[in-house]
Amino acid sequence: MLLDGRKPRRSVGASGCAAxxxxxxxxxxLAGLEPAPLVPAQLRGRxxxxxxxxxxxxxxxxxxxxDISDWVFVESFRDLERRCxxxxxxxxxxxxxxxxxxxxxxxxxxxxxxTVNASRHRKIEFRFRxxxxxxxxxxxxxxxxxxxxxxxxxDAFSDPSAPARPLAAFFRATVGEVAREPVAVLDxxxxxxxxxGGVHRFPPTTEFETLMAGMVTAIPATGWAWLSTLRAVGxxxxxxxxxxxTEVAATIPPEQGPVSLSVMCISTDxxxxxxxxxxxxxx
Length: 283
What we know:
alpha+beta; globular
């Protein structure tokens, strides 16, 4: 607000500058904040701007992570570990969220794994045992109208004693079968993330997704079987990322406590000096 030498149309008094009053109901004081003292007469009529800042109770102790990706990676890892540790039956929502975390950590165009590991160069290895395809005699047990579907049990897939494999091999690993075709880890993650609502709730776009959606709708128990398999995929991921997550977590400072809110009105005089006209701080 620029005021010339004439009498200001609005006075700036104990309730703060006009810019501050515009931020509060009916020009009143902010809830829980004390008004600043009156603006000195010699500073009235100057250009006034509002500045909103946020600071901790101890600004000198605020330390931000080197990269926000580090913090998101560690928190995503911890969330994935928690969800994978849940027993069955568990919340369908909790298990469905595993697909979102796996997508964020491993599958996205620039997944968090690649971002945080770019400067650390850790070798990430996945240990699992692929599901075997169903035998011919097992297939014969299905009626002709029923789509053959098989989901690997979690215990069978997640195996810490299995040979170490890279991420690409993990994505291709077979975790079951639909319509006599193998279902890979990447297929399963994308299905639950994009069709079942882990991230999006989109209509099926592939033959595999269409068959899965129809089967899960017709026989809900199959959905739980595949969610159990998704949890096993998450458990393999947790063990593969544990060492990296521990290393990254050690570089992140503890989160700070509550912050205080400050609204300052600044006046600049002709000589270029600034004056703090009013300041509000939470009590």
